[in-house]
Amino acid sequence: MRYIFFILLLCFINNLSAQKIQVLDSGHHTSLRGLSVVNDHIIWVSGSNGQVGLSLDAGKTWDWITVKGFEKTDFRDIEAFSSTEAIIMGVAEPAYILKTNDAGKTWKVVFEDKRPGMFLDAMEFWNEMSGIVVGDPIDGKIFIARTFDGGDTWRGLPEENYPKADSGEAMFASSGTNVKAINKSEAVFVTGGLRSRLFVRNNKIDLPIIQGKQTTGANSIAVKNEKILIIVGGDFNTKDSADKNCFISKDGGKHWNAPAINPHGYRSCVEYIGKNNWICCGLTGVDYSTTNGQQWNLISNESFHVVKKAKSGKAVYLAGINGKIGKLVY
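and the corresponding structure tokens:
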């Protein structure tokens, strides 16, 4: 009996240690927060200093693009559909969304908003035609715009339909993942700051994640199905703290429970990657869970802002500061 227990324990430990992060590229002069993995070979990234990167060979080589006329823009989110078609989001004053159909050789401005205080946080697409972008509150209302033509045009919601934000409540443009599709037609998003909430189906649900300061709250949400959701965040000013930085819901966000073992520090992004497996990353490293988020194992001390799984395929990539790009090996 002891022998069987030892073998099972050894298998469990080997499984935990089987995942690691391989750094593919680094040193480029940009902070990457936008990442879109089309398939196991095509990866797009976007970041500060007007930078966009494209790899067609699973991250072995990269073509770097400085978007002309936007050399100082911080492109904190990107959505790509192929090796030639991608949409990038420039965050603030003015806020821009641009689209390319020729692998970044040319870009068309498809959205522009010059209002004071305008700040876009994240995009999400249900399919190649239908998408959503969310932004920080303006005059106390969270900004939302929709596209139904593949990002060629964007239209804000009617004024009366913008969700109202509480005082000091906003969103973090840390990884482009605070909004997520929950089914084929609906999306949910999370806020942070002085108050952190989940906005789902016209409901606003208070989250148990750490909050109360401008640097605290939920940064990212990932969805397994309409019931199982995971949020991560924390306080990016205390990056090593694991206090109230991750919570799991099994009923579509109505109730939340903390993991038995939290991720190891502030986390800016979480991603569901299949079966019971999840991955999250932040300034102090990368954590992996094989238990639907109940236990998190630190698999790397490398800092990353964002992690994404291939839309079509199994590959998982990460991106972060100084142009760092990594790949999950498992």
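(Above: one complete record from the training split.) Residues 1-16 have pLDDT under 50 and may be disordered.
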